[in-house]
Amino acid sequence: MRNRTYTADAEPGRTVTVAGWVHEIRDLGGIAFLILRDKTGRIQIKFEKDEMDDELVETGLGVHRESVVTVTGDVEEEPRAPTGVEIVPESIEVLAEAAPDLPLDPSGKVDAELSTRLDNRTLDLRKEEVKAIFEIRAEVLRAVREQFRSIGCTEINTPKIVATGTEGGTELFPITYFGREAFMNQSPQLFKQLMIGSGLERVFEIGPIFRAEEHNTPRHLNEATSIDFESAFIDQREAMDACESVVRAAYEAVADNCAEELETLGLADEFEVPEDDFPRISYEEAIERINATGELDEQLVWGDDLSTEAERALGDDVGGHYFITDWPSEIKPFYIKDHDADPQLSTGFDMMHPRMELVSGGQREHRYEKLVEGFEQQGLDPDSFEYYTKMFKYGMPPHAGWGLGGERLVMTMLDLPNIREAVLFPRDRQRLSP
Ligand code: ATP
Ligand code: MG
């Protein structure tokens, strides 16, 4: 529609054509209002029944809620209207009639269960506060891309259908690939590392990862969006610097460009860009601090992974984003490098929000012999990863990187109760459609 005006741009004194959904019809007798909603907001259309063509009034007021219409008319100032202006219609066209019974009420007056909302995501996203989440998600991804570009990364796209997994066998989704067994990729880990030895040197990828997670939880998806970074000639500390800069850039962009959305979500006052450097706490110190909180039934000992409760206890103690560094080598994957001075200690790190883990990363093992040893120690057959390991024989620089869960970033940023709120069409153990 070339001559369409967004409702937010309808200025008094102009004749405009607006297009959108019938949000509500308010019939007060001699006068009635149709509230039309589009991407930018809502506008009131006024019907003075006695002064208007009968057919126009009938069309405008007879249409079901959520039908799609265009309205042409004069914009007038009206202090009593919700936006201070209203349109006096000259013509109305119904482009798509909506059925009278809706599976979900987009006006939000009737609450709906999350599952009903996800089944009817199209209607759900007509609600301002739901749309706001996805406008912010888009801004986060834009800002993240821009930040990566500003620190010299090249965006890559790697295969999602793969021959082998990397992050543990039980979480793999098997598929059939022309009669052969294949899998949906759990992580771009090995591919992004292969690009470190290429001429690209410093890369990022934003793409799906697939994990057959054992349980439904509020923070796990079976298909998630991973924001991955990998760079040659840096160590884990510089990788943490990059991580912090990317997360901060996302917060800054939302603060700068999504004021309206934050307002809609009721976060205008509490939204804060993390200003201070994220504290870097060693694993050893982390378990001491967790034990000192007294929140856990059993004291943690060196070598334990951190449970959800342990993460929560430490998160409450720290109160903002932070890193946990120097994990025991045993509980980090084979591709993470150990400290030269102490092979029990890895260069692996996690970046945490007080509510949950957002990032895992580390310096990588770039020495061929050590890498192959690591595979064997983890019970993986190095032969099936030959496409990966052999490139470490032909000049693989030292490198480091990390992976950040896109949905977890949005979820923690907006304090959403469930990760599914940050995905259009979430995949979990029950949900495969839509
Ligand atoms: P967790 O222990 O919380 O299940 P993980 O340590 O298994 O996560 P990693 O393999 O370290 O996950 O992946 C890096 C990041 O990707 C995580 O920190 C998280 O933000 C995100 N992520 C991983 N798995 C999922 C998932 N199933 N759903 C949503 N995000 C995920
Ligand atoms: Mg992790």
What does this structure look like?
Helices cover 28% and strands 26% of the residues. The protein is of the alpha+beta class. It folds into 2 domains: 7-96, OB fold (Dihydrolipoamide Acetyltransferase, E2P); 122-278 and 320-422, 2-Layer Sandwich (BirA Bifunctional Protein, domain 2). The chain has an 8-stranded mixed beta sheet. It has a 5-stranded mixed beta barrel with strand order 1-2-3-5-4. Helix 8 packs across helix 9 (308-318). The chain is elongated. The model has no long low-confidence stretch (mean pLDDT 96). Residues 350, 357, 360 line the site of magnesium ion.
Fold blueprint:
Layout: E1 15-27, E2 31-38, E3 41-48, H1 54-62, E4 68-77, E5 85-96, H2 114-119, H3 121-124, H4 128-150, E6 154-155, E7 161-162, E8 173-177, E9 180-184, H5 189-194, E10 202-210, E11 223-232, H6 236-257, H7 259-264, E12 280-282, H8 283-293, H9 308-318, E13 322-325, E14 349-353, E15 356-363, H10 368-377, H11 386-389, E16 399-405, H12 406-413
Parallel strand pairs: 3-5, 6-10, 12-13
Antiparallel strand pairs: 1-2, 1-4, 2-3, 4-5, 7-9, 8-9, 10-11, 11-16, 13-14, 14-15, 15-16
Helix pairs in contact: 4-6, 8-9
The chain binds adenosine-5'-triphosphate (ATP) and magnesium ion.
Shape call = elongated
The number of helical segments is 12
Helical content class? 25-40%
Q: Look up the CATH topology of the largest domain.
A: BirA Bifunctional Protein, domain 2
How much of the polypeptide forms β-strand, as a percent range? 25-35%
